Amino acid sequence: xxxxxxxxxxxxxxxxxxxxxxxxxxxxxxxxxxxxxxxxxxxxxxxxxxxxxxxxxxxxxxxxxxxxxxxxxxxxxxxxxxxxxxxxxxxxxxxxxxxxxxxxxxxxxxxxxxxxxxxxxxxxxxxxxxxxxxxxxxxxxxxxxx
Length: 146
Prior knowledge:
The protein has a single domain, classed as Metal Binding Protein, Guanine Nucleotide Exchange Factor, Chain A. It is mainly beta. Strands 6-7-8-9-4-3-10 form a 7-stranded mixed beta sheet. A 3-stranded antiparallel beta sheet has the order 1-2-5, with no helix packed on it. The protein has helices spanning 30-36, 131-139, and strands at residues 2-7, 14-19, 23-27, 41-47, 51-53, 58-63, 66-70, 79-82, 87-91, 102-107. Keywords: Lyase, Metal-binding, Zinc. Residues 4-117 form the CENP-V/GFA domain.
């Protein structure tokens, strides 16, 4: 097991979690699409007892079956937890270093959008290559985020 850290965009909610693998999954269900505003969400399933919250997240009761942790200040969605389960999911993007994780399955495939499955053929641009974004960050006296 190794420890990974993460948190919300503003830094108010932070966590450290012990994980036993880098396997993650994508959820495409309509509930997750609505909760995140995306076509899918990448999750890492973890044992809740292995999470140490530096500052507890806020929780939204998203259905009679489950709740979702988030930060009330910046709105970052942080995961999903069924009621009465020893495990929960943390959003892969909320980890400080999400690069070790890789998807091993899809869930909620009935709502999967095929057009978004493989985007490798589309043109790509780094934020640092987009002059208007770079200018906005530098004009604000800030470094361009990675």
